[in-house]
TrEMBL record, chains A, B:
<keyword id="KW-0805">Transcription regulation</keyword>
<dbReference type="GO" id="GO:0000976">
    <property type="term" value="F:transcription cis-regulatory region binding"/>
</dbReference>
<dbReference type="InterPro" id="IPR036271">
    <property type="entry name" value="Tet_transcr_reg_TetR-rel_C_sf"/>
</dbReference>
<dbReference type="GO" id="GO:0003700">
    <property type="term" value="F:DNA-binding transcription factor activity"/>
</dbReference>
<keyword id="KW-0804">Transcription</keyword>
<feature type="DNA-binding region" description="H-T-H motif">
    <location>
        <begin position="28"/>
        <end position="47"/>
    </location>
</feature>
<dbReference type="InterPro" id="IPR001647">
    <property type="entry name" value="HTH_TetR"/>
</dbReference>
<keyword id="KW-0238">DNA-binding</keyword>
<dbReference type="InterPro" id="IPR050109">
    <property type="entry name" value="HTH-type_TetR-like_transc_reg"/>
</dbReference>
<dbReference type="InterPro" id="IPR004111">
    <property type="entry name" value="Repressor_TetR_C"/>
</dbReference>
<dbReference type="InterPro" id="IPR009057">
    <property type="entry name" value="Homeodomain-like_sf"/>
</dbReference>
<dbReference type="Pfam" id="PF00440">
    <property type="entry name" value="TetR_N"/>
</dbReference>
<dbReference type="GO" id="GO:0045892">
    <property type="term" value="P:negative regulation of DNA-templated transcription"/>
</dbReference>
<protein>
    <recommendedName>
        <fullName>HTH tetR-type domain-containing protein</fullName>
    </recommendedName>
</protein>
<dbReference type="Pfam" id="PF02909">
    <property type="entry name" value="TetR_C_1"/>
</dbReference>
<feature type="domain" description="HTH tetR-type">
    <location>
        <begin position="5"/>
        <end position="65"/>
    </location>
</feature>
């Protein structure tokens, strides 16, 4: 493959394919170079290290977040938005882990943040509370995605597909009430 | 060290020391055997594999959860309980990861589950809602512990020590209201 194809976009597409197909642990610069039909040395001219590759991948992931406007009322729109984000991230199991491990802000995540905060404000939260609720909902969502432990299933309430929706609704209802 | 000292309690104590001091990645049967002044072969007579070692460690961790009854009202008691659980797990950074990765129920976690569900019921939730809220609060707590990403800090509401308390209060208030 000619060196001209080593654009950031081509590199991140190849990295995403490796992460989706083989898992994040397999994602090395060497493996991505092989995917692109080139050698590690060529790739190192474009990417400093694995950390930068993960950053590019996280930034690319953030460009694809769904921005939904569906729902019968403001609270329902918030619930559907977070449900859609859950499904999007669940389709890329490496996503939640690199978001949680990433201690940097991603420029491409700004539209989703603003969309979500606006939705929370429309549901009755003042601006600062909306931003705090936005952060709390991320903790909740990442907990859902990263946690395999079946809490509470021995106590008569088995987890199901409505768990996250319910918790988002509770959290936002409580934030609007206090 | 004589073989008589290789009780399950001694093994799990040594494993906990290794995990606290060196991190979970360093926790191997070989490393624990060295900590106990014995060889891996001796340890394998008591522990089948690393998975069993992690299970023992998770079970041991669960015996130590704080059960608090402090607080000025039922909701405040719930908030303080989860705050205490956060602090307990934050002191053992490997804890949240092995809980989240563990797809088994731990017998020693039953007291904490019952205590927390009782507290939620006292705060006005019916039994099934209390169990569901218990699971949602675990997702929230694990999200807090596993997530290093500073969501919302660019939007004027920097995270602080009150984030979890606030989110717990919102979630329980909303669960009681719906």
């Amino acid at each position: 493959m000619p060196r001209a194809s080593l654009t950031p976009a081509a590199i991140v597409t190849a990295a995403r394919r490796v992460a989706d197909d083989e898992g994040i642990a397999e994602l090395t610069l060497r493996r991505v170079a092989r995917e692109l039909g080139t050698g590690p040395a060529s790739l190192y001219r474009h990417i400093a290290d694995r950390q930068q590759l993960l950053h590019l991948l996280a930034d690319d992931l953030a460009t694809g977040y769904p921005l939904t406007r569906a729902g019968r009322d403001p609270l329902d729109r918030v619930v559907r938005q977070w449900h859609a984000m859950h499904d999007y991230l669940a389709a890329h199991p490496w996503g939640a882990r690199i978001i949680a491990d990433g201690q940097y802000a991603l420029p491409s995540a700004r539209p989703i943040a603003e969309h979500c905060v606006d939705q929370l404000a429309a549901a009755g939260l003042d601006r600062e509370t909306a931003v705090r609720a936005y952060r709390a909902l991320w903790h909740l969502l990442l907990g859902h995605l990263l946690n395999a432990h079946p809490f509470g299933h021995l106590h008569g309430a088995r987890g199901d597909g409505t768990d996250l929706d319910r918790a988002v609704r509770w959290l936002v209802t409580g934030a609007a009430a206090t």
